């Protein structure tokens, strides 16, 4: 299927809400097209010599045109591959969009919007001539609440993350760009994420020690969705797994990814995550990025000439070398990137050089040289991003009819997050090198590091509020204090007229390479909220957080804090997205993709940190045992009967939704008895045994909007397996269905949740297979993990 054709089919199928989930369980690879692409790859391979083959598998860091480069081979008309960061927008580019971050789009619980975002992202990468987007990120999953990269992914729940990953991969690849789903696997913290020096001693990366069941049911789960969706590439991660580096781990690369999950594309390393040549190649690594051994020595690579020698000495077989090359070339032909693909936008190079603080003269470029104009790839994406940002905003509290704002005459705005950025697009390499709390002044619309984008503009909350005031003919006035020290110290002198409502904007920064150290929002946030709440004469304080994810909110129960909105990282339209929600132009419909605890001590997982001076030079000290197994986030809160502040799946609306009738369960497997294990197949297709993806039961409920405005509900299905036939450590309930349903006031619709075999099974370690436990399953349907409205049962 040509990519535009596939998109049309998917969007047609998405029209019918009950079909949407099936779309995401269908294989994303067209077998005939794959075979035809493989033939083209094979034909090219026969023309290549061994040096050229190794070159296709080794990045060239000396070429700064893209985030990663595979050199061209002009002799055979192969133009090379351009790889670009990252999951929220094309990073080193001018005139490109900064999209809503992963955690925001995950909070929409809306596969259709998630697909739309992936599609638009892909269009921008294609427009800039990038063949591969280094995304989506679905690892880290978010085991550790303060993980520095959690915001790049979608949710701590593997089912929600899996569907979001699938929708994103499909969107990206339908636009003709290869997705590289990352980071495989167990990359759950940034602290000591990779090999490094401590006092001159080489200290190995953190080892994520994960048992087989947990590996399958949590951390690999969304990657299985990515493979099912047809991801053409997977990035192996920095960390070790049971003390073996992820990029040379035969068990998870060859064993699980390529054999069990039937992945046919290529595995590329994270940047400098390769630590061996022949060993990594034989374990399943196909492409070494960015090429050299490390950032200190650009001339040496574990691949390149080293791979040639390994093949010549027989340490890597010629067949394996060809397999690696075939895996890299087939995706290129599969997407038709050999035909009419846009050239690489040359402006990217100058953006990179500028980010590295090089001036044109450093490259002997005369001052008056006209630089190539950037290709504007933003199209109409601003409108999408505005919608996505609003849709990923979660209304957590709304008392005294505070929201939506009706016609306030005067609004007071507080907090450094409300303002324009004191350093906007000029933040070096997307804020990777900003201080631990990010830039002191300005709205936080994304995190830092490779996952960030480069802002061509940003709409701050103040700017959008002022525009709103202007469009009301200035019948509404805006006053503000954006200096957090002034607010925290309760200096409200001069504010007049007294505000009808007070808005507080808080921000929380997170970035690759560092984990967060504080649960509360940054910049003295609690003092800021408390002082506004005790001052605000109308006793209506609305708190908005722009955040990487989990924050504790010690002020949430303050009766003067009458509304709370978790706006996550909405991207470049941040101000417009939140103003749409505040004034009710958009009815909030986001739901938490994680749990907000009352107290940070309620979480059971934290960063593993070696702080003992005697241990910091111990090369093998970093051992993180995932002893909590499956019990992370809401599963842990359920198992230990801890009441959260706002539970997983929670989110309010300006209207009211109800479930009516009863839970209807219909078997669709068409068998008298269902086998305990999935029937064996000769060869696993992408995603593993295809029988795991077959729907066994369809659960249907009716959802009604009983309020007086239109809005979108997110009915959620939580499944409990039969207690008597599951092993210890099985969560009390897990998310296994959800949908996003738009309903006019008074409207009612049927919602159907397909339960696939994988959804109902657990990973049986002894059998090395997915086992469907016999007995009675409980199906709970509601509007959050703690707001269960109805129950039904399934007997297997
Ligand atoms: C392979 O081909 C390249 C031209 O693309 C040539 O420069 C190189 O010498 C050849 N290497 C071998 C080992 O034949
Ligand atoms: C860098 O790579 C790009 C894309 O393959 C290519 O157009 C350009 O010529 C390369 N530059 C150098 C100096 O090799
Ligand atoms: C780690 O070792 C345990 C125990 O041998 C095994 O069950 C598990 O699959 C291994 N995990 C990884 C990620 O290799
Ligand atoms: C890079 O590595 C090679 C091989 O180990 C070594 O000969 C060379 O001196 C190194 N270069 C630098 C700059 O460290
Ligand atoms: C091949 O592997 C052997 C054993 O690991 C090693 O001693 C040798 O150096 C390797 N040769 C090359 C060329 O990598
Ligand atoms: C603002 O004023 C214009 C011109 O008087 C009028 O057409 C418009 O309806 C007013 N808008 C609002 C929101 O009051
Ligand atoms: C934080 O808030 C406290 C309490 O109001 C205040 O004393 C302190 O000065 C504030 N710190 C900063 C850096 O603004
Ligand atoms: C609530 O607001 C009122 C009026 O500003 C104030 O007197 C009171 O102390 C506030 N309460 C809290 C808990 O902040
Ligand atoms: C959180 O719990 C700890 C330990 O029980 C306690 O010391 C602390 O005061 C609590 N914090 C809050 C904000 O309740
Ligand atoms: C880890 O410990 C170091 C001190 O050794 C500290 O600077 C750092 O903030 C800690 N990291 C986290 C994420 O807590
Ligand atoms: C909803 O399902 C019921 C059966 O449970 C069916 O009678 C009804 O027509 C369906 N409604 C819609 C709008 O599809």
Outline of this structure?
The chain is of the alpha/beta class. A 6-stranded mixed β-sheet has the order 1-2-3-4-8-11. A 6-stranded mixed β-sheet has the order 12-17-16-15-13-14, sandwiched between helices. Strands 10-9-7-18 form a 4-stranded mixed β-sheet, with no helix packed on it.
Polypeptide structure, described:
Belongs to the glycosyl hydrolase 3 family. Helices cover 26% and strands 18% of the residues. The chain has 796 residues and is an alpha/beta fold. Helix 6 (111-127) packs antiparallel against helix 15 (381-391) and helix 16 packs across helix 19. It is globular and about 80 Å long. Strand 28 and strand 29 form a beta hairpin. The longest helix is centred in the N-terminal third of the chain and has 17 residues, at 111-127. Strands 1-2-3-4-8-11 form a six-stranded mixed sheet. The protein has three domains: 2-18 and 655-795, Immunoglobulins (Immunoglobulin-like); 47-191 and 203-343, TIM Barrel; 381-596, Rossmann fold (3-Layer(aba) Sandwich), CATH 3.40.50. Bound molecules: 2-acetamido-2-deoxy-beta-D-glucopyranose (11 copies).
Instruction: List the ligand species.
Output: 2-acetamido-2-deoxy-beta-D-glucopyranose
Radius of gyration: 26 Å
**CATH homology-level superfamily of the largest domain:** Glycoside hydrolase, family 3, N-terminal domain
Tell me how many strands there are.
29
CATH architectural group of the largest domain: Alpha-Beta Barrel
């Amino acid at each position: 299927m040509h990519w535009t054709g596939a998109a049309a089919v998917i969007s047609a199928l998405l029209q019918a809400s009950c079909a949407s989930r099936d779309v995401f369980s269908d294989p994303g690879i067209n077998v005939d097209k794959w075979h035809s692409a493989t033939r083209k790859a094979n034909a090219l391979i026969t023309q290549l010599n061994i040096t050229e083959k190794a070159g296709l598998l080794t990045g060239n860091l000396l070429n700064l045109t893209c985030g990663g480069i595979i050199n061209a081979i002009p002799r055979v008309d192969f133009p090379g591959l351009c790889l670009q960061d990252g999951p929220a927008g094309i990073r080193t580019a001018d005139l490109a969009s900064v999209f809503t971050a992963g955690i925001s789009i995950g909070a929409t619980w809306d596969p259709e919007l998630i697909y739309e975002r992936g599609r638009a992202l892909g269009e921008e990468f294609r427009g800039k001539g990038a063949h591969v987007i280094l995304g989506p990120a679905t690892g880290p999953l978010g085991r550790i609440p303060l993980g520095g990269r959690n915001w790049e992914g979608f949710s701590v729940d593997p089912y929600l993350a899996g569907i979001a990953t699938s929708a994103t991969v499909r969107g990206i690849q339908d636009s003709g760009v290869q997705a590289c789903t990352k980071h495989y696997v167990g990359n759950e913290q940034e602290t000591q994420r990779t090999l490094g020096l401590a006092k001159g001693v080489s200290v190995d990366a953190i080892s994520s020690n994960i048992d087989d069941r947990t590996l399958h049911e949590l951390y690999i789960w969304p990657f299985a969705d990515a493979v099912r969706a047809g991801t053409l590439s997977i990035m192996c991660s920095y960390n070790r797994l049971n003390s073996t580096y992820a990029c040379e781990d035969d068990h998870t690369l060859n064993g699980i990814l390529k054999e069990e999950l039937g992945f046919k594309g290529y595995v590329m390393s994270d940047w400098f995550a390769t630590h061996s040549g022949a060993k990594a190649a034989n374990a399943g690594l196909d492409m070494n990025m960015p090429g050299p051994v490390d950032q200190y020595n650009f001339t040496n690579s574990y691949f390149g000439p080293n791979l040639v020698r390994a093949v010549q000495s027989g340490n890597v077989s010629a067949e394996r070398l060809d397999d690696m090359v075939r895996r890299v070339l087939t995706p290129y032909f599969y997407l038709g990137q050999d035909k009419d693909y846009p050239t690489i936008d040359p402006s990217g190079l100058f953006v990179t050089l500028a980010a590295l603080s090089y001036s044109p003269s450093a490259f002997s470029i005369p001052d008056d040289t006209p630089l190539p104009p950037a290709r504007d790839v933003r199209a109409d994406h601003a409108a999408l991003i505005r919608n996505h940002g609003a849709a990923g905003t979660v209304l957590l509290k709304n008392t005294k009819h505070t929201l939506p704002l009706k016609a306030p005459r005067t609004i007071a705005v507080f907090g450094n997050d409300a303002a324009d950025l004191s350093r906007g697009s000029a933040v070096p390499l997307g804020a990777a090198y900003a201080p631990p709390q990010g830039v002191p002044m300005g709205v936080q619309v994304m995190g830092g590091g490779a996952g960030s984008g480069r802002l061509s503009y940003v709409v701050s909350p103040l700017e959008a509020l002022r525009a709103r005031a202007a469009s009301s003919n200035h019948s509404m006035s805006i006053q503000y204090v954006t200096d957090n020290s002034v607010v925290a110290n309760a200096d409200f002198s001069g504010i007049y007229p007294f505000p009808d409502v007070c808005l507080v904007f808080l921000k929380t920064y997170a970035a690759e390479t560092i984990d967060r150290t504080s649960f509360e929002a940054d910049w003295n946030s609690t003092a800021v909220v408390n002082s506004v709440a005790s001052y605000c004469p109308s006793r209506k304080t609305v708190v908005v957080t722009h955040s990487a994810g989990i924050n504790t909110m010690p002020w949430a129960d303050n009766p003067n804090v009458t509304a709370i909105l978790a706006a996550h990282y909405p991207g470049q339209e941040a101000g417009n997205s939140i103003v749409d929600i505040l004034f009710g132009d958009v009815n909030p419909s986001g739901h938490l993709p994680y749990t907000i605890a009352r107290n940070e001590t309620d979480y059971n997982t934290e960063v593993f940190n070696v702080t003992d001076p005697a241990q910091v030079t111990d090369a093998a000290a970093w051992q993180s045992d995932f002893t909590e197994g499956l019990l992370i986030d809401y599963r842990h809160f359920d198992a230990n009967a801890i009441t959260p502040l706002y539970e997983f799946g929670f989110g309010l609306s300006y209207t009211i939704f109800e479930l009516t009738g009863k839970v209807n369960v219909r078997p669709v497997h068409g068998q008298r008895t269902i086998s305990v294990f999935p029937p064996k197949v000769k060869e696993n297709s992408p995603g593993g045994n295809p029988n795991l993806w077959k729907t066994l039961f369809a659960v249907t409920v009716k959802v009604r909007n009983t309020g007086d405005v239109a809005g979108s509900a997110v009915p959620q299905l939580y499944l409990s397996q039969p207690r008597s036939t599951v092993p210890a450590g099985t969560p009390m309930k897990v998310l296994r269905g959800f949908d996003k349903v738009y309903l006019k006031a008074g409207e009612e619709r049927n919602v159907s949740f397909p339960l696939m075999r994988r959804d109902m099974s657990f990973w049986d370690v002894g059998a090395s297979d997915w086992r469907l436990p016999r007995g009675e399953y409980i199906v709970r349907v509601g509007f959050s993990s703690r707001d269960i409205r109805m129950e039904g049962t399934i007997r297997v």
